[in-house]
Amino acid sequence: MFAIVLGTKAELIKMMPVMLELQRRNMDYYFIHTGQHSISDLIEDFGLKNPDIVLYTPPSLSSRFMVRTHKAIFWSIPLIPKIRAAIRASNPSYVLYHGDTLSTSAAAIASSFLINPHKRWKNVHLEAGLRSYDLFEPFPEEISRRIADRFSDILFAPSKLSVQNLRRERIRGKVIRVGNTIADSILISLNIARKRLKRPKERRYVVVNIHRHENIKCRERMKKIVEIVKSVSLPIYWPIHDNTRQQLQKFGLWQELESIESIHFSPLTPYVEFIWLLKHSTFLITDGGSIQEESLFLRKPCILLRKKTERQEGLNTGINFLTGLDVEYARAIIKKLERGLTFKNFKNPYGEAGVSKKIIDWLLAMQKK
Predict the structure, then answer these.
(1) What gap in Å lies between CA 151 and CA 133, rounded to an integer?
(2) Is 13 in contact with 37 (CB distance < 8 Å)?
(3) Are residues 105 and 143 in contact, defined by beta-carbon separation less than 8 angstroms?
(4) Are 296 and 309 contacting, i.e. CB atoms less than 8 angstroms apart?
(5) Bond from prior residue into 235 cis (ω within 30 degrees of 0)
(6) Which residue in 98, 69, 99, 9 sits closest to 311, CA to CA?
């Protein structure tokens, strides 16, 4: 019996192929949703079962906390005993959680020996070992993933570098390098998209995705981001987060962007549609996390509007560019990408598809020992 704990859309997207692999094998799992994000659309798109238990009512907006990080941290504290009770009631062999959200760290603590000294299960962290080595970039994700790694029995690492990070920190759990489940998520999503979507009418365009709290809470950073986006000469598709729009309006920057005809704003699009949009794009401008991995699997250049990244493997591929929010450097990269980028000796550091099957095979083999 598997218990799966997740709270956000990003967690579900990356855990989805693992859940589908269990369903394919007719293996039961207990689905615990913390309610950090609304995920009903993704469940329907991917044919997943509904959560067995929902710990908090999901928000209607794209962010439960908007830009109130302190509220998010306080929300996660009472979440721990709720997750613990749900896990104990389901009596699993394994507890699985993914990534670096507050739901992730809460699940790691709730399922650990720390508050379950006589536990009968192993708790498992998927996508372990990512590090920016800066507690505030990104915040609180860098802290959440360190907590999750510290309290996990089994750690599935996506890359050689993530394994090295865990060994350097002398993490006590069992570390296994398997690649990143996002490879499976993308293939599943593209298979769905091909059946129901057409290619966007523009042959060349840019996708923008901005939502990091350390950016959108800072007026100066947002001014730089606006200047960078304005330097793009190609059409732009920007599915915008509620909190990003709110902050742009607060800082008096929204009208400046809204008046540019080449920028096409929309509400956040379903994941399948977003991956389809990204697949046909020329390049990507973002401050996100998982989207850096998606850009690598889709071989799309990515301009990263951050000071630091925990996906450092991508910086050595020649198609991911960490700008440090340097406007002139970002503009130079944009010009280069608009002219066209030649891929030379590109190799994805996160492996190939089939990761979800590897994870389930490994856990089942361990269970038999």
Answers:
(1) 18
(2) no
(3) yes
(4) no
(5) no
(6) 99
Over residues 253-301, the pLDDT tens digits come to 999 999 999 999 999 999 999 999 999 999 999 999 999 999 999 999 9
Report the predicted TM-score, pTM, of the whole model to 2 decimal places.
0.93
Q: Is the backbone peptide bond immediately before 140 cis, with ω within 30 degrees of 0?
A: yes
Cβ-contact 128, 62 below 8 angstroms: no
- Please state whether the peptide bond connecting residue 138 to the residue before it is cis, i.e. omega within 30 degrees of 0: yes
> How many angstroms separate the CA atoms of 95 and 90, rounded?
10
Q: Which residue has the tokens 């949009």?
A: 277
Both ends of the chain: CA-CA distance in Å? 16
Q: One-letter amino acid identity for 363? A: L
The rounded distance, in Å, linking the Cα atoms of 298 and 18 is 20
Rounded CA gap, 146 and 135, in Å? Answer: 10
- How many contiguous H segments (helices) and E segments (strands) does the chain have? 15, 13
Residues 6+ positions from 14 with CB-CB distance below 8 Å: 98, 99, 126, 127, 180, 181, 182, 185, 290
In 3D space, the residue among 165, 77, 93, 169 whose CA is nearest the CA of residue 127 turns out to be: 165
**Which helix (H) or strand (E) covers residue 4, if one does?**
strand 2-6
pLDDT tens track for 83-111:
999 999 999 999 999 999 999 999 999 99
What domains appear along the chain, each with residue ranges and CATH number?
A: 2-180+351-368 (3.40.50.2000), 196-339 (3.40.50.2000)
User: Looking at residue 70, what is its pLDDT?
Assistant: 55
Structure tokens at 234: 């190609």
Q: Which of 60, 17, 66 is nearest to 39 (CA)?
A: 60
- Give the DSSP letter string of 96-162: EEETTSHHHHHHHHHTSTTT-TT--SEEEEES-----S-TTTTTTHHHHHHHHHHT-SEEEESSHHH
Please, is 120 exposed, middle or buried when counting C-beta atoms within 10 Å of its C-beta (0-12, 13-18, 19+)? exposed
